[in-house]
Write a structure and sequence with these properties.
By secondary structure, this protein is an alpha/beta fold. It is built from 14 helices and twelve strands.
């Protein structure tokens, strides 16, 4: 659990110092890794600030302080995975609750809804959350949550967080925002009125493809305490070693996000010129239908993009065999560039009909631009497309 942060700073400064500070017996600059399951009681027999790592751990607490500082939240909980963060957030709502969510979501989130929470009494209403009137019309007496993913995976659609928060506030509904694609450097959902932010820290926040982790951050202390208690009860908190690695990643988060965005912008603009490509999805492009919302809601457009390749899945597989700098793989947000086919990976749990309804075509390619030089990434994509 972590308390409210100090005054905001520039992202580069905030990331470099978040959660750190000379402490402990040797005044270490970085938080030590407390690799212990339990802590000795005081001589008086009383429990100290920590007594069992599932309940709390100093290394994890340092990460949670950093997450609060990055998001401007009151309480953060570092979890063992992104879906563990989502599980913790969804556990706020009792059986019989309705959750309104977008039609185009990460496949793992949809699987969590269907396989874990629908059988336990939650219902889900899926609407196009780009349409605020449709969201407002979908609210029912039993609606308890607006579940927002923005930008969405994999089509980079945006949801107006402030508009959703206004609807939710009028109905006393909790807003949960998955901000994984943007990172705290490029989007601040809590400042826009959201109640809770979830992240897969596996992605940009850690940024080195060597951790699986998540985070849930609350705007209010009261809601944060509920989430922290649920996390301890569910057993969703992450390990001390993973917390240490994510803290290390945060130090360069702002600098990495700038590099990711430079590469993604250059690649997206290049792809728009290619006859092999039907459509490019990137909020930084003027052709993106929500470009103005992106400029208003975000401070950067991110390192994720997608495009529809002519020729469907066979063409995608040929492209994968010919790229040199883009590694065909799941996940995203690391220093290396990754390329994936959402219908086969992140959204394989959806039926073909559901993918079609969500706009996910068989020729869709999702790209996570790393921190390589933009010119090198463009050149690699150019040679691969030229061989199709």
């Amino acid at each position: 659990m972590a308390r409210k942060p100090k005054a905001p700073a520039h992202p580069e400064t905030l990331c470099a110092h978040a959660g750190s500070g000379a402490g402990g017996e040797f005044r270490s600059l970085n938080a030590p890794i407390y690799m212990t399951s339990t802590f000795a009681l005081k001589e008086s027999g009383e429990v100290g600030p920590y007594f069992y790592t599932r309940e709390g751990n100093p290394t994890r607490a340092a990460l949670e302080r950093a997450l609060c500082e990055l998001e401007g939240g009151a309480v953060a909980v570092a979890t063992a995975a992104g879906v563990a963060a989502e599980t913790t957030a969804l556990s706020l709502f009792p059986a019989g609750s309705n959750v309104i969510a977008g039609k185009a979501l990460y496949g793992g989130t949809l699987r969590l809804f269907r396989e874990a929470f629908e059988p336990r009494g939650l219902s889900f209403t899926f609407v196009d959350m780009r349409d605020a009137k449709a969201v407002a019309a979908a609210v029912r007496p039993d609606t308890r949550c607006l579940w927002i993913e923005t930008p969405t995976n994999p089509l980079l659609n945006l949801v107006d967080i402030a508009a959703m928060a206004k609807i939710a506030s009028a109905e006393k509904i909790i807003t949960v925002v998955d901000g994984t694609f943007a990172s705290p450097c490029f989007q601040k959902p809590l400042a826009l009125g959201a109640d809770v932010v979830v992240h897969s820290t596996t992605k940009y926040i850690n940024g080195h493809s060597d951790v699986v982790g998540g985070a849930v951050i609350a705007r209010s202390a009261e809601l944060g305490r509920k989430l922290a208690s649920l996390a301890r009860t569910l057993g969703t908190p992450g390990s001390p070693f993973d917390a240490f690695l994510v803290l290390r990643g945060i130090k360069t988060l702002a600098l990495r996000m700038q590099a990711h965005e430079r590469a993604a912008t250059a690649l997206a603009r290049f792809l728009e010129t290619r006859i092999e490509v039907e459509r490019v999805y990137y909020p930084g492009l003027e052709s993106h239908p929500q470009h103005e919302l992106a400029k208003r809601q975000m401070t950067g457009f991110g390192g994720m993009l997608a495009f529809d390749l002519k020729g469907g899945k066979p063409a995608v597989m040929r492209l994968f065999r010919r790229v040199r700098l883009f590694t065909p793989a799941a996940s995203l947000g690391g220093v290396e560039s990754l390329i994936s086919h959402p219908p086969s990976l992140s959204h394989s749990a959806l039926t073909p009909k559901e993918r079609k309804a969500a706009g996910i075509r068989e020729g869709l390619v999702r790209v996570s631009c790393g921190i390589e030089h933009a010119d090198d990434l463009v050149a690699d994509m150019k040679q691969a497309l030229s061989l199709l």
